[in-house]
Structure formats: structure tokens, C-alpha cells
């Protein structure tokens, strides 16, 4: 494939192929354009050539549609004042590199005009043969690349593609440091609940020790009160003896 830009006479090519012609008679023009684009796309995808399919339009200006959002794969619709044949001839006449341009059409007059400007021309049969060949080559290239990717995967360590930060975090969570923190967190949560149960319920299992501490403190307070009362009584007796004397 010696050309870098392929101009396709859209409806002329559609009517040159029996399958597309039947689809044109039974389906919408949009569906037929999609079928043609799908069949010719491998020329663009594998060969790397710009692909421009030209159709007769109805608007006031030239319209460009890029179905695959690629700047090098386009559908062009002429204004109503110009035919697709005329636009293709104009592109051939104004091209600065006609030897890198090719036109696909069955129209003999367009082929003759394009050739006069040094543009390469191909027939519909040659066009679809090139598309099929490019499709096969593209499929083989994809399969070859897939096999190479699987081979590289088998030969490399699977850990090479893992997130290093994720591995580091995983090591921290599996370390004694993380387990110790986890145990402290669990004991800190359980202990207050146990003390609270002992203080409130005084159960023998959970709060026995706490009950003993509470009773011990209560006995200490009672003894302090008795000692305080004895001190007050002794002071009262001394006061009476002092007044008598």
C-alpha cells in the first residue's frame, strides 16, 4: 500500500457491491454507511492510511463526521451545490502530494481525472480485497501481540505489577505491631463494660472484686465516724471540768 490518504466514492462503492446494494434497498442510508465503514476500517487501522469516504450531501456547507472519533477516519458530505465526484476531483487537483493520494471508485471519468493529476486509483474489487487482507493481517497482529503478552506474563513475576504501597500496607497489618494495637483496642473496649457491670449489678462473676473494694471502703468510713464521735465526747468532758474549776 503506497498511498497515505484514501478517498472513497461512497455511494459509487456501495452500488458496486452486491451485499451493500441489497442493504441499500432494504435499510436506511445510515445503516449502509455504517456497514461500508466497518468493512473498510481495517485499511485505516492496520495500514495506517487516512480514510475519507465522500457522500453527496444536502446542506449548504461541507460536513465532516468522525464516527470513531479519529481525525484520520472521516465521512464527508458535500453541500447540495456540489457532488461527491466534484469534491474528489477538487481534492486531487489541489493536493500538494498527489502521489500519496488514492481514489477508490468505479466511475471511469473520475479515475481518468485523478490519474491526470498523478493520483493512484483502485477499483471497488481491489478496495474490498485490500480491506479483507488488512483485516486478516490486523487479526494476526492482535493474536501475536496477545501471545507475546501472555509469554511476558509467564516469564515475569506476578508481583511486579502489584501496587507497592498496597504491599507495604499489607505487611504492616500482618505485623506484631498491628496485632498488639488490635489487642489493646479490644481490651480497652471490654474492660469498662466489665467494671460497669460489677458496679451496677454486683454480680459474683464480673464484679466480685469491685464489691469487696466497695465494702472495705464503707467499713473504713464507719470507723472514722466512730473515732470522730469519741473525740468530740472527750472534748466536751474537758470543757465542763474547766468551767467548774
Protein architecture, described:
This protein has 245 residues and is α/β, with parallel strands linked by helices. A 6-stranded mixed beta sheet has the order 3-4-2-1-5-6, sandwiched between helices. It is 65% helix and 13% strand. Among the domains are: 5-134, Rossmann fold (3-Layer(aba) Sandwich), CATH 3.40.50; 215-245. α5 (108-116) links the parallel β5 and β6.
Q: Which shape, going by the Cα principal axes?
A: elongated
Mind summarizing the main beta sheet? 6 strands, mixed
What does the radius of gyration come to?
47 Å
Distance between the termini: 141 Å
Mean pLDDT: 79
CATH topology of the domain at 5-134: Rossmann fold
Order of helices and strands: EHHHEEEHEHEHHHH
Number of helices: 9
Number of strands: 6
CATH architecture of the domain at 5-134: 3-Layer(aba) Sandwich
What share of residues are in beta strands?
5-15%
Structural class by helix and strand composition: alpha/beta
Q: Which consecutive residue ranges, at least 5 long each, have pLDDT under 50?
A: 191-208
CATH C-level class of the domain at 5-134:
Alpha Beta
Helix content: 55-70%
Largest sheet, spatial ordering of strands: 3-4-2-1-5-6
Amino acid at each position: 500500500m503506497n498511498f497515505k490518504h484514501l478517498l472513497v466514492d461512497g455511494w459509487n462503492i456501495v452500488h458496486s457491491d452486491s451485499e451493500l446494494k441489497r442493504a441499500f434497498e432494504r435499510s436506511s442510508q445510515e445503516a449502509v454507511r455504517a456497514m461500508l465503514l466497518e468493512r473498510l476500517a481495517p485499511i485505516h487501522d492496520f495500514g495506517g492510511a487516512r480514510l475519507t469516504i465522500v457522500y453527496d450531501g444536502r446542506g449548504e456547507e461541507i460536513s465532516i463526521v468522525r464516527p470513531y472519533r479519529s481525525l484520520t477516519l472521516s465521512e464527508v458530505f458535500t453541500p447540495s451545490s456540489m457532488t461527491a465526484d466534484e469534491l474528489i476531483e477538487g481534492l486531487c487537483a489541489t493536493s500538494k502530494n498527489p502521489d500519496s493520494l488514492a481514489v477508490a471508485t468505479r466511475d471511469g471519468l473520475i479515475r481518468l481525472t485523478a490519474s491526470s493529476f498523478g493520483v493512484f486509483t483502485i477499483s471497488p474489487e481491489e478496495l474490498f480485497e485490500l480491506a479483507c487482507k488488512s483485516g486478516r493481517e490486523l487479526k494476526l497482529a492482535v493474536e501475536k501481540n496477545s501471545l507475546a503478552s501472555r509469554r511476558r506474563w509467564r516469564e515475569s513475576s506476578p508481583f511486579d505489577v502489584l501496587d507497592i504501597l498496597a504491599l507495604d500496607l499489607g505487611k504492616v497489618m500482618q505485623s506484631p505491631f498491628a496485632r498488639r494495637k488490635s489487642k489493646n483496642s479490644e481490651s480497652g473496649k471490654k474492660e469498662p463494660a466489665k467494671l460497669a457491670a460489677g458496679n451496677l449489678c454486683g454480680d459474683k462473676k464480673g464484679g466480685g472484686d469491685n464489691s469487696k473494694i466497695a465494702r472495705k471502703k464503707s467499713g473504713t468510713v464507719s470507723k472514722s465516724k466512730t473515732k470522730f464521735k469519741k473525740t468530740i465526747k472527750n472534748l466536751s468532758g474537758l470543757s465542763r471540768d474547766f468551767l467548774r474549776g
